[in-house]
C-alpha cells in the first residue's frame, strides 16, 4: 500500500482519520441515503433510452450484468470500509498515496456534476411540460433554487427521513406509471415469447 493510516477514534476531523464505529451513519439512514440515489429519475430515463435504442431484452441483460459487476466490486470495497472505517478519500490515499484523495474528490465531483445536471434537466423538462407558461430556462432556475439548499449543511440529516417517508409513494408511482403506460400504448407478447424461447434453448 502506498500509505498507512492509523485509526484515531478520538479525533473529530474524520476527513483525515478513520471513522470509529460510534460515529458512523446508522444502517437506516445509510439505507435511505442509498435509496435517494437509486430512485433518481436518471436511472429510469437511461433504462428507457437503452430499451428504445437496443431493445428491451438487451437493455435488461445489460442492466443485470451491470448490477452484478458493481455488486461484486463494491461488495469488496464496502466490507473493507466497514472493517477499517476508511472513507472513499482515505481509501484512495491508502491505494495511491496522498494524491489519491485528490483523485477520489475529482471523480466524485465529475460524477455528482453529471448526475445532478442530468437529473435536473429531466425534472426541468417535466415541469416545463406541465407548466407551459414557464420557459425551459425558468424551469432550470426553479430546479436549482429548490435542489441546491437540500445539500447544504445539516439539511441532509432530515433528508434521510424524508426519503423514508417518500419511499412508498415512489413505489406506488412507479407501479402506476407502468400501468398507465401499458394502458395507453398496450403490451406486446413479443418480449415474453423471447424470454420463453430463451429459457428452452
Task: Provide structural commentary.
The structure is a single chain. This protein has one domain. It is 74% helix and 0% strand. The chain has 8 helices and no strands. It has helices spanning 27-38, 41-54, 56-84, 88-96, 100-130, 136-147, 155-185, 190-200. The protein is globular and about 55 Å long. Mean pLDDT is 77; it is low at 1-11 and 194-201.
Rg, rounded, reads 21 Å
- Poorly predicted runs of 5 or more residues: 1-11, 194-201
**What share of the residues lie within helices?**
over 70%
Major β-sheet, in short?
none
How confident overall, as mean pLDDT? 77
How many angstroms does the end-to-end distance come to? 48 Å
Proportion of beta-strand residues: under 5%
Shape: globular
User: How many distinct helices?
Assistant: 8
Domain count, please report it: 1
Order of helices and strands: HHHHHHHH
- Work out the number of β strands: 0
Broad structural category: mainly alpha
Amino acid at each position: 500500500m502506498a500509505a498507512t493510516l492509523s485509526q484515531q477514534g478520538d479525533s473529530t476531523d474524520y476527513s483525515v482519520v478513520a471513522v470509529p464505529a460510534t460515529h458512523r451513519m446508522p444502517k437506516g439512514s445509510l439505507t435511505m441515503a442509498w435509496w435517494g440515489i437509486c430512485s433518481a429519475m436518471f436511472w429510469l430515463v437511461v433504462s428507457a433510452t437503452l430499451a428504445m435504442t437496443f431493445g428491451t431484452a438487451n437493455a435488461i441483460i445489460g442492466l443485470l450484468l451491470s448490477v452484478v459487476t458493481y455488486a461484486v466490486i463494491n461488495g469488496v470495497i464496502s466490507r473493507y470500509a466497514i472493517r477499517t472505517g476508511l472513507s472513499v478519500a482515505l481509501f484512495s490515499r491508502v491505494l495511491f498515496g496522498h494524491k489519491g484523495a485528490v483523485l477520489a474528490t475529482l471523480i466524485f465531483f465529475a460524477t455528482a456534476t453529471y448526475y445532478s445536471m442530468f437529473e435536473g434537466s429531466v425534472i426541468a423538462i417535466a415541469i416545463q411540460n406541465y407548466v407551459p407558461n414557464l420557459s425551459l430556462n425558468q424551469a432550470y432556475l426553479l430546479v436549482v433554487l429548490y435542489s441546491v439548499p437540500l445539500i447544504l449543511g445539516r439539511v441532509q440529516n432530515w433528508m434521510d427521513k424524508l426519503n423514508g417517508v417518500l419511499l412508498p409513494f415512489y413505489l406506488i408511482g412507479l407501479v402506476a406509471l407502468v400501468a398507465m403506460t401499458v394502458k395507453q400504448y398496450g403490451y406486446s407478447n413479443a418480449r415474453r415469447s423471447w424470454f420463453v424461447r430463451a429459457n428452452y434453448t
